[in-house]
Amino acid sequence: MAYNETIAEVLARQNTNTTSGLTAEEARARLSKYGANEFREAKKETLLQKIIHHLLEITAIILLVAAAIAAYMAITSGEGWAKVWVILAIVVINVVLGIYQESKAEAALDALKKMNSFSTTVIRDGTKQKIDAKEIVPGDIVVLTSGDIITADARLIEVAGLTVEEAALTGESIPVEKDPDADVEDNSPLGDRVNMVYSGCLVTNGRGLAVVVETGMNTEMGKIADLLNSAEKLKTPLQTRLGQLSRRLCAVALIAGAIIFAIGVFLHGTDLPEMLLVAVSLGVAAVPETLPIIVTMTLSHGVHNMVKKNTIIRRIPAVETVGNTSVICSDKTGTLTQNKMTITKIWCAGCDTPTNATDEFNWDEEHLLELLAACSNASIDGDKVVGDPTELAIIRLLHDKGISREKVDKDYPRIHEVPFDSTRKLMTTKHEAWEKPESAIYHGGEISGDYLVVTKGAFDRIPVEWTAEMKEKATRIHDEFAQDALRVIAISAKPCDHDPEGDELTTENLEQGQILLGLVGMIDPPRPESITAVAQAKEAGIRTVMITGDHVETAKAIAKQIGIYQDGDKALTGADLTNIKIGADSVDPLVDVVRDVSVYARVSPEDKIRIVRAWEKQGEVITMTGDGVNDAPALKQADVGAAMGITGTEVTKSAADMVITDDNFATIVEAIKEGRTAFDNIRKTVYFLLSVNFSQIFIMLTGVIVWQSPPLVALQILLINVISDGIPGFFLSFEKSEAGIMKRPPLPKNSGIFANGLGVRIAIRSATFAALTLAAFAVGMYADFAPHIVPSREVGVSMAFVVLSWASAVNVFNVRSEGSVFKSKPWKNKGIILSVLFSVAVTVFIASVAPIANLFQVSALSTTHWLICIGLVLVLVLAAELQKLMRKNKRA
Q1: Can you tell me whether residue 769 is helix, strand or coil?
Q2: Which residues of the chain have pLDDT under 50?
Q3: Cβ–Cβ < 8 Å for 83, 280
Q4: Which helix (H) or strand (E) holds 67?
Q5: Which strands make up the sheet holding 327-331, listed edge to edge?
Q6: Helix axis angle, 272-286 relative to 82-115, nearest 10°?
Q7: pLDDT of 671-727, one tens digit each?
Q8: What count of other Cβ atoms lies within 10 Å of the Cβ of residue 758?
Q9: 426-432 and 414-421 as β-strands: parallel, antiparallel, unpaired?
Q10: Cα separation of 341 and 881, whole Å?
Q11: DSSP calls for 222-237
């Protein structure tokens, strides 16, 4: 392994050198041998596999069976092939639309990957050149500088103060100091391999030179990506509910068909072929043929809307799943907070109280800030931000006070540096051309000399010669900062009257006998919109939980500000979770206390999975956020994995169901709102379609039992399902959010598609449809008020067809809103108005044009018949208004 080999051995094995690197010809050969430096995705389905997948959906199977029976009847009874072709056309449309929408989602993901491509500086043919990270090959000599994303696994050759943030891979939030000459034992964990750098990690400080040893799927990140490709994702709640619905429809169709077949053949002696045709029509009636298409359109419209709100959905059903979210497990840094350390308070050692960073600074405070900047390596030049987050906070405040980094470097030229490391928790610099100012920050200490040594770092490590009074005062200020969850940085200095050289430049000599200059307190502040978003989520019945690698007190303070942590809530650390041991019976005690915990701090990737599983065992739908590779398993475990688009790694995005492109918690809440809207529209579609479909079963059963003849023929039923139901139903996909959508609790995870009284409403509406249609059939059969039209079964069938067709189309106005149809502002969805007018016009056209009427078995109607049909449709509207009023009074 490269980490336990010498540099010379690694270079020899890779057949390269640090001076000239690879030649362009050798690089091309290796690219051909090893392949591009990118992650291999799970093998995509072929077009044929996609078609088969869609044809195996239960609703498609029912339609194919119905088409087969209709084809048999066409062959044996000469009924014609119209029903067969129409049913098959619906199946084809469903498959084509499903594949098209999946292709759009894949294209969105490909676009996201292009947005996240990187370049890398390598040495080839003896010159430095920037290349696309995909072109890196083993043996390339890579040049690393502060701010670089590492794009391949590499063995370090030389470094200068190189620190690398490996949180994306190991979960360790503190940057790791690298040492190419370190002796690393066999089988050492990744975090201990300090002579290596790994793909996906970030250079936070210093520079380095490294030789690439692994690329693509052979990198440590690639191995994780390969594991994720082989993992299976559980079905979403939508897939489960639609499966339940399809199975119920199958059962209804089979039972109703068997009953009608038995009554017709055994009680009424009807011919078997005729009753088989009736059973086919009932099979068509029981299945809402357009439901799969409308559901796909609804979810796709949700995907489109979410893109506008900085969310990219990787899997279409996740639109509905995120809408049912009941718990959000959110990372703190960058999601709930700004991911921008900010100094909020500064204290000069000679002062009694600290100063807010937003206040105007005096000379002492500005000078303290300048020295902090002089002892930092971060820089901000326009959009180019390079450096450690702590140092960047110093430079931002420096710029806010109107002082440039260039001025500081000119006033305090640096001639030596002892880089920061995690053991000392200090950084020290030496500067020349310094003159002692008369300033209170030195609290009376005698300072003179031509050189200045400045040290910044942890308060408990700062190399100060304390007086009792100063120690007491500084400790009091430090504790005040800590109570406000501020990260405290101390700064001290000492003068030199000569230029230290040789042994005098050791860390031990420089970092001792200094005078305390002051303290600064900084924090990663909450996003302003996070506070509102958390409150909105709470109003919507959604619990927000913070999971972070930060210290528990800092996490609690931020959680309180945002509204996540309330009095009485618990905050657990990774150590606390370790102490909550899983029993021998595999029962996790965390399940019993998970509802009491609002903050988790210093947790590991395994802890995150455990937290998600505990919530899932409580029956909740979990949305989990993450950005690092170590977050990917938890994202995969959660019902919805939400990866960060800016800081998220490629592996994390691949494991996620959706990508938050602005890394903002408020965007997640907006996505939930859009998901609820999509699911509402799906439920409206189910309500709209099944009200008619089930009424058709009642109508057919009653007709066979009472009149020994069905009031509708199969082709009429299919036309109603496609024209009067299907087309208006399509436009339900584009309904906007209803008022109060984020003021109601989410549906329980185990609730069915008919939850919250939807099944009862469908039953009532179906009964209304059936009663009105049968009334129309009876009028046509027996009422004699048109001299030139004799009452007959044919007239009854015609009136039943017109009433059910019109009532079905008009019903969309009742379904689209919980409020009164007279207050719902239908013009906001012009598609619904146009589709209803089209459906009504098609019905009139079929009933009025003789050749078409004969095909659909519709006979001529008088004006009186038409007026009765209109009256019966208006009765439906009034009945729907009464049903809404009763529901409203019940809720009140």
Answers
A1: helix
A2: 108-109, 112, 115-116, 230-234, 440, 443-446
A3: yes
A4: helix 58-77
A5: 311-313, 658-660, 640-644, 622-626, 327-331, 543-548, 597-601, 570-573
A6: 20
A7: 999 999 988 888 888 899 888 888 888 888 888 888 877 888 877 887 787 788 878
A8: 17
A9: antiparallel
A10: 57
A11: HHHHHHHHHPPPPPPH
Q: How far apart are CA 546 and CA 599, in angstroms?
A: 5
Structure tokens at 267: 């009680």
Whether 330 contacts 420, CB under 8 Å:
no
> Do 710 and 704 touch, CB atoms closer than 8 A?
yes
CB 428 within 8 Å of CB 507: yes
Please say whether the beta carbons of 791 and 883 come within 8 A: no
- Spatial CA neighbour of 858 closest among 845, 872, 841, 869: 845
- Specify the 3-state DSSP secondary structure of 186: coil
> Alpha-carbon distance 62 to 282, whole Å?
12
Amino acid 231: pLDDT: 43
Q: Residue 159: beta bridge partners?
A: 208
Residue 289 phi/psi, 5° resolution?
A: -55, -30
Cβ count near 164 (within 10 Å): 26
Rounded CA-CA distance 845/848 in Å is: 5
pLDDT at 92: 85
Residue type, 526: P
| Amino acid sitting at position 512 | Q
Distance in angstroms (rounded) separating the CA atoms of residues 681 and 732: 6
Q: pLDDT, tens digit, for every residue of 749-792? A: 777 677 788 888 999 999 999 999 999 999 999 988 877 888 99
Q: CA separation (Å) from 798 to 515, 849, 862?
A: 100, 13, 11
DSSP state letters, 810-869: HHHHHHS-SS-TTSS-GGGSHHHHHHHHHHHHHHHHHHHSHHHHHHTT-----HHHHHHH
- Matching residue, tokens 């357009």: 290
The helix, strand and coil proportions of the chain, stated in percent and rounded to the nearest 5, come to: 55, 15, 30
Q: How far is CA 152 from CA 132, 218, 313, in A?
A: 12, 9, 28
Label residue 421 left, alpha or beta by phi (over 0 means left) and psi (-120 to 50 means alpha). Answer: beta
Ranges of beta strands (E only) in 149-269 are 153-165, 176-177, 196-197, 202-214
Strands 658-660 and 127-132: unpaired
Give the active site residue among 140, 148, 331, 725: 331
116, exposed or middle or buried, with CB in 10 Å at 0-12, 13-18, 19+? middle
Q: Which candidate, 533, 529, 552, 557, places its Cα nearest to that of 544?
A: 533
Q: Which helix (H) or strand (E) segment is 145 a member of?
A: strand 141-145
DSSP letter (8 states) at residue 146 = T
Q: In the prediction, which pLDDT does 726 show? A: 75
Alpha-carbon torsion angle 143, 148, 149, 150, nearest 10: 20
Q: What is the rounded radius of gyration, in angstroms, for the C-alpha atoms of the chain?
A: 36
Which tokens in the block code for residue 369? 């800030």
The pLDDT of residue 503: 58
CB atoms within 10 A of CB 248: 16
CA distance 658 to 662: 12
Residues 6+ apart with CB under 8 A from 687: 758, 761, 762, 765, 815
Q: Strand (E) positions, 166-201?
A: 176-177, 196-197
Distance CA 785, CA 117 (A): 77
DSSP state letter for 38:
S
What is d(CA 375, CA 417) in angstroms, rounded to the nearest whole number? 9
> Active site includes 631?
no
Dist CA 679 CA 83 (whole Å): 32
Q: Tell me how far CA of residue 72 lies from CA of 68, 80, 265, in angstroms.
A: 6, 10, 19
Nearest CA to 740 among 819, 667, 829, 820? 819
pLDDT at 668: 93
Residue 169 CA to residue 187 CA, distance in Å, equals: 17
Which two tokens mark 405?
Answer: 């980094």
